[in-house]
Amino acid sequence: MIMNEEIIIAGFGGQGVLSMGQILCYGGVMQNKEVSWFPSYGPEMRGGTANCTAIISDEKISSPILNTYDTAIVLNQPSMNKFEDGIRPGGLLIYEINGITRKPKRDDINICQIAAYDESVKMKNTKIFNMIVIGGFLKVKPILEVENVIKGLEKVLPERYHHLIPLNKEAIQRGIGIISYERKLN
Amino acid sequence: MKELRLMKGNEALAEAAIRAGADAYFGYPITPQSEIIEYLMAQNTEERTGMAVLQAESEIAAINMVYGAAGCGKKAITSSSSPGISLKQEGLSYIAGAELPCVVVNITRGGPGLGTIQPSQSDYFQAVKGGGHGDYKLIVLAPATVQETVDYVKLAFDLAFKYRNPVMILSDGIIGQMMEKVELFEQIPRSDKEYDWATLGKKPGKDHVIITSLQLQPEEQEKVNLRLQEKYREVEKNEVRYEAYNTEDAEYMFVAYGSCGRITQKAMEMAREKGYKAGLIRPQTLYPFPVEIINKVAGQVKRILTVEMNTGQMVEDVRLAVGGKIPVDYYGRFGGMIPSPDEILNAFEQKGG
């Protein structure tokens, strides 16, 4: 089957939203997939919400910008408000529990929750929060090998941070372990 | 296999400029293309290839620095976004008039005025119809992917020197900001070739070389104009580039370029799935415009829809190419808004397929 995964990732600036998309895309490059990444750029990045579109596909990608998504990963309430409606029926919503005050309302999509922030506190490093979320995503949608995502991370991360790669690997594993379904469609 | 990298359009463009053996970049930052100068600065190009990278005091200064470097036969490039490109128009007209090679990049944003920082194609007219004063043309390349951006930097320098004419890479905020897989070409060494038209100081036994766009005698200016026109006819004959999809059996044709071209490609595929025999022509050169292929398909299809991120500019050139044979409609979003494939398909169906 031809794989084509269109993902929106959204949250506050500083949560690592843009780099999550980049890491997934570089993972895609490592796995010989076609990829595209498009950020929200401009005033909305300065202190407000940030989002990016990541597309990972077996086929050439025509449009890098989307109105509807296979998966939305939302890390705060404004992002939930903005992107929940754009998820295609049967698609996937992953949300971070601590960022959300109103539960999702859709009943025609798969919904997963992840307490990535709590887990990052347990790991004593809140900066790897986004890698925990990536782990959760890869558990539910195993479109990429974890090994390839790590290889992608090595490309995205400046060399002076490469000693943190084992920690990031651990974070992905934790994410895989803690994500849970709130609703799973048959 | 060569190394594949995931790069932002702007950064890939900057890397391609270094690898193309550019001698100099002069520019002034503006969203959404500031990564170009940022990347070049971070690359320490002076050490890497000896390429000069300078942040000028303004866009006007930058284009005139390009003029100077080009006059010495050097490979010079500048980049900006719409309002900054407007500031460069006087310099571009002079460079075209003086018949010098250079590359100018426009990562277009919405306008008029300071407009918006989001992607747009509203500088089409400015790019292909002259922009500055006087009868001149830029060769205009329109990349749709990060890979094409990289390849066109090399091509742009080649064309600029082949025709001694400024070449514009007309891109936009989508291609500039997005990241894609890209394969970079190998470093081309900087050239120390001394062109006979370049001003490098008078050599014994040789005449003065004069670079100017000023002719006091109208007879002389007319000669310049005729020579330029001759050059443009050559360009039109040799340099038309486009991609055509599903033209063989098409009954309907889309025409769209750049980022809008790839979005429209998706809409065309969706139209195919719904049973419409649709095709797409994506001009890769906007000047010279792919007149011949569009005229040819006009004898085959029922109608043409152009899709643009402006209020309808390229549609005029498509209509000229079609010569009234069939209806040509336009659909677009503008001001920084980007059309979705569904929206385009909807417009296509509303216009009667």
Structure, described:
The complex is a heterodimer of chains A (186) and B (353). With 186 residues, chain A is an alpha/beta fold. Chain A has one domain (4-183): Pyruvate-ferredoxin Oxidoreductase, domain 3. In chain A, 35% of the residues lie in helices and 26% in strands. Chain A is built from six helices and seven strands. Chain A has helices spanning 17-30, 77-83, 116-122, 129-140, 146-156, 165-178, and strands at 4-12, 34-39, 49-57, 69-74, 87-96, 110-114, 180-183. Chain A has a seven-stranded mixed sheet, sandwiched between helices. The two termini of chain A are 20 Å apart. Chain B has 353 residues and is α/β, with parallel strands linked by helices. Chain B folds into two domains: 4-201 and 227-238, 3-Layer(aba) Sandwich (Rossmann fold), CATH 3.40.50; 242-350, Rossmann fold (3-Layer(aba) Sandwich). In chain B, 41% of the residues lie in helices and 19% in strands. Chain B has 14 helices and 14 strands. In chain B, strands 3-2-4-5-7-6-12 form a seven-stranded mixed sheet, sandwiched between helices. A five-stranded mixed sheet of chain B has the order 9-11-10-13-14, with helices on both faces. Chain B has a two-stranded antiparallel sheet with strand order 1-8. In chain B, strand 13, helix 13 (314-322) and strand 14 (328-332) form a beta-alpha-beta unit. The radius of gyration of chain B is 21 Å and the shape is globular. The termini of chain B are far apart. The mean pLDDT of chain B is 96. At the A-B interface, helix 1 and strand 2 of A face strand 1, helix 9, strand 8 and helix 11 of B.
